[in-house]
Amino acid sequence: MFKLIGVLFIFITFVLLGFYFSGILKRRVEIFRQTKIMIDKISTLIKYRAYNVFELCNEIKDDDSLYEMTFTSFSDTNSIPFPELWNESVKKWNVPIKNNERNIYFEIGRTLGTTDTEGQISSLILFDTEIRKILYDAEKEYSEKSKLIKMLGVLSGAFVSIMLI
Q1: Which among 32, 49, 89, 121 is placed 20 to 30 Å from 15, CA to CA?
Q2: Which positions ≥6 away from 111 have C-beta within 8 Å?
Q3: Can you tell me the distance from the alpha carbon of 40 to that of 62, in angstroms, rounded to the nearest whole number?
Q4: In whole angstroms, what is the distance from residue 85 CA to residue 11 CA?
Q5: pTM
Q6: Is-contact 121 41, C-beta < 8 A?
């Protein structure tokens, strides 16, 4: 009886691992969708409301549809320059993205508030183009690998369970 329960536990563990790793791919897609929305929102707020960088971050932080953009929340903003705050926050941002993708977020932080309105908007348009490419790749990777990863979890769990019986 205990052996059967153990085997069932192992099977369920492998299945859940497959769904967990598939969920990571799905989260990457959602992060880049929200990043695209964030860039559009920043462009609009700069162009039509002339917000400064801290007002932009507060708007993003308060927007419930951008729940993955937690790096825009700063605790101490008094004596630290904005690009440093942004970079430290992006470094601490715990999300499943690659280092070259994280570099785009560093570049966004370096660009915001450093040039005039048109310069910032032009830079944001370039970042939007890069994010669209990354989003396309992330969606493609999710559609290609998600079912495979889930099935691999199920089949691995079944294989290990059979081997233990």
Answers
A1: 32
A2: 120, 123, 124, 127
A3: 16
A4: 45
A5: 0.90
A6: no
Instruction: For the beta carbon of residue 98, count every other beta carbon within 10 angstroms.
Output: 10
pLDDT tens, residue by residue, 97-118: 999 999 999 999 999 988 899 9
Nearest of 64, 54, 46 to residue 124 by alpha carbon: 46
Segment 132-162, tens digit of pLDDT: 999 999 999 999 999 999 999 999 999 999 9
Q: How many domains does the chain have?
A: 1
Within 45-116, residue ranges assigned H as helices are: 53-62, 82-92, 99-111
Residue pair 64/149 in contact (Cβ under 8 Å)? The answer is: no
Enclosing domain of residue 138: 2-164
